[in-house]
Amino acid sequence: MSLNEKVSAERLHIAFFGLRNAGKSSVVNAITNQSLSVVSEVKGTTTDPVKKAMELLPIGPVVIIDTAGIDDEGELGELRIEKTRKILNKTDIAILVIDASKGKQQEDSNLIEDFKKRNIPYIVAFNKCDLITENKKLNENEIYVSAKENININELKELIGKLSNLEKEEKTLLGDIINSGDTVVLVTPIDSSAPKGRLILPQQQTIRELLDIGATVVVTKDSELKETLSKFKNQPRLVITDSQAFKRVNEIVPANIALTSFSILFARYKGELWGAVSGADKLDELQDGDYVLISEGCTHHRQCGDIGTEKLPNWIKNYTKKDINFDFTSGSDFPEDLKKYKLIIHCGACMLTEREMKTRISLSNEQQIPISNYGIIIAKINGILERATAPLRK
Length: 394
Prior knowledge:
Blueprint: E1 12-18, H1 24-32, E2 50-56, E3 60-66, H2 74-87, E4 93-99, H3 106-117, E5 122-127, E6 142-144, H4 153-167, E7 183-187, H5 201-213, E8 216-220, H6 225-230, E9 238-241, H7 246-252, E10 258-261, H8 262-270, H9 273-279, E11 291-296, H10 307-320, E12 325-330, E13 341-346, H11 354-366, E14 371-373, H12 374-381, H13 385-389
Parallel strand pairs: 1-3, 1-4, 4-5, 5-6, 7-8, 7-9, 9-10, 11-12, 11-13, 13-14
Antiparallel strand pairs: 2-3
């Protein structure tokens, strides 16, 4: 992935919902001016969610998601509905497509209630308006369209654009900490788990933002960090390390130089940093037989020495001296029922949308299960949590 390409997790996610044969896929194709979804008169043509990262004018970079009908039937239908409902966790703007000739059904009303409960901005698009003779007065977030006759498609895009402007919030990894002219050192260990020939997404995103700020970025391996720092005439403003190297980097970086990790930066960027810091205190309360959930947002191939499934569990056991049970999830898998766990430890969520990560945090909070973050837990285990979070305290 190039540094100037906006990753899916940073794009606005616009999802289309509705009953089978309401014309969701036709509306998606009309809005995007592409054949993203298969269109058929046969009910249930769309089975799994269809996703496409693209530029959608006048909105900009987005991910368009077409979902299966919320009224699907049978055993497979239930699985499709479950997948559709999971899309709600990452939806920034919802488009409910209703067959105008049939009107709003109970399932449509249920979806609207779900949108409201989750605080998802939504639009109701009454499709197939060419089949009706009378247009009723609509609310400001409702619109008559016809994908077949291309009626009000541009107007629907303008409505989406208005909501997207409301959703946009200027967020930054480092913009409130680093100034133009500052020097920042990034420590990126290259070991067996590092992807060959490229940097991982948090490193890429951090580099790009620092360059946009006007900072000087120096990238080095942990094995060369000491020599790198010795070459500075003026000390760097901040050192950011991969959390796995926290212990070694902390020993090398002088106490008067600020230190944090990519994972901790993303805990603030995508989630709730200080809630995650509080969650780390649960480590000191764990007992034999307790269950801990370790969750990653990506689905990379697990290797020997994997941080989530091997290193973290071993570090936690060594720290607590307790016989802890661990469960692991990755990608979109995240349990609805969390009551068996005493603690949840999540990755930095660079591959998840902010809404999806905050949905997981809300679910944990509702069930009163502490949730923390890889980098925060590793910093606590190494006794440097105060130092590692100090640059982010205001």
